[in-house]
Amino acid sequence: MATHVGIDIAKRSFDLAFEPKQKARHFDNDASGIRQCCTMLKQLQPDLIVMEPTGGYEAALQIQLQAADLPVAVINARQIREFAKACGRLAKTDKLDAQIIARFAAVMQPAAQKPVDAQTRVLKALVARRRQLVQMHTAEANRMEHADDNAIKQSIHKMLELLENQIDSADRQIQEQVESMPKLKDRTEQLLSAPAIGPTTAALLVIELPELGQLNRRQIAALVGVAPINRDSGTYRGKRMTGGGRRDLRARLFMPTLCAIRCNPVIREFYQRLLDKGKAKMTAVVAAMRKLLTILNAMLKKNESWNPKTT
To answer: What distance in Å separates the CA atoms of residue 282 and residue 277, rounded to the nearest whole number?
Structure first.
């Protein structure tokens, strides 16, 4: 009989539930607890283990489970909460959360994720840190607009300089890591051949979107959340809108898309054609983002550099 495991993780402990139901288990979220959990699950050999991302508290457990050749999937917490609502499970405790995660694993059966090597983990951490620094820089820049006192302005200016130096340092470290990984280096160089794609965006795509070049154009657009979603019911035809997918990645593709509209002839012509048809500017920008993404996807799939005829 297939066994699915749901794990609810907190800072100091985590709970396991099973589908079909078995006795729930509780472990400390430390080296000893993780070791005990791995030993138990290796004996059980479950078909799938599902957990939610919890700000990094899940990382050590995920690494050890995957190192033990156990199938692990880390699933967006929102998906599991929506599943819980659909099942009528509104109460929330650690044990109940583990039970609903196990049920989600059994019913939805998401694909297990490939283990991430140490270099890639470092790279992902650097990218996440760079994102945090950029967010802090944006917040400080916004404060500068409303600062009247000279002492406050000077303080903000110093902080902006510090953050800019830290962002530059993160960029250098990311590039060094990419250079040391031949496969990522080759993929990055292919993306860099496209007008408007710079080193930061290329590194972001190969790190945060490893599926690029592995899916078809509809799948990659849906994964990022730039594919139009139908909203029809009976005779009603709702407005098509984009959404879902990897929101953070979509947000960070916005500025490169604006750059492509200016300097990439294929994207510029596509964007202008939509405006000529009466499309709203933001609608045209999102469509241009989808066009750019699908071209980059085709480049990696065909193992080719930029070609204006690539679609």
So the answer is: 14
Q: Is 28 helix (H, G, I), strand (E, B) or coil?
A: strand
pTM of the model: 0.73
Q: Is the peptide bond before 182 cis (omega within 30 degrees of 0)?
A: no
Give the Cβ contact number of residue 224 at 10 Å. 25
User: What domains are defined for the chain?
Assistant: 4-108 (3.30.420.40), 118-180 (1.20.58), 199-301 (no CATH)
DSSP-assigned beta bridge partners for residue 233? 236
Alpha helix stretches (DSSP H) within 77-212: 77-86, 94-108, 118-145, 150-179, 182-192, 199-208
Residues sharing a CB contact under 8 Å with residue 291, sequence separation 6 or more, in sequence order: 266, 267, 270
Neighbours of 181 (CB within 10 A): 17
What average pLDDT does this structure show over 232-251? 59
DSSP 20: S
164: tokens are: 């800019």
User: Cα 180–185–189 angle (5° rounding)?
Assistant: 150
The pLDDT tens digits for 29-47 are 999 999 999 999 999 999 9
